[in-house]
């Protein structure tokens, strides 16, 4: 049973760490954008269109775009809160940040409970079996 508690604790801890790392990554969504004006000027088609295809990637708080209009890539960065407040609702970003924090918090508490049960008082839960199952269920639901 100690091995089972340790395995569950490591799983909950890795879930919390993974969600914390994913929250900070800049590549949540990616796409490509065609510079239609440049492609129409030179009447590009087929493989030539790749010279006019730019990239767009953004994460939770900012992003990066590379414009390709046939003259090479021009990279620029943008951030959501100062620049895109009128286009994207702030409530969406705040709720995503809140739930990412909830995932990290509940996963940390669940892993703490598991390690407490594995090495603290042997095979006794802090708030009874239902307390242990409750924290685990909340942690899994938020992830």
From TrEMBL:
Keywords: Membrane, Transmembrane, Transmembrane helix. Belongs to the clarin family. This is Clarin 1. It is found in: Membrane. It is a multi-pass membrane protein. It comes from Pogonophryne albipinna. GO terms for cellular component: membrane. Its main location: membrane. Pfam families: Clarin-2.
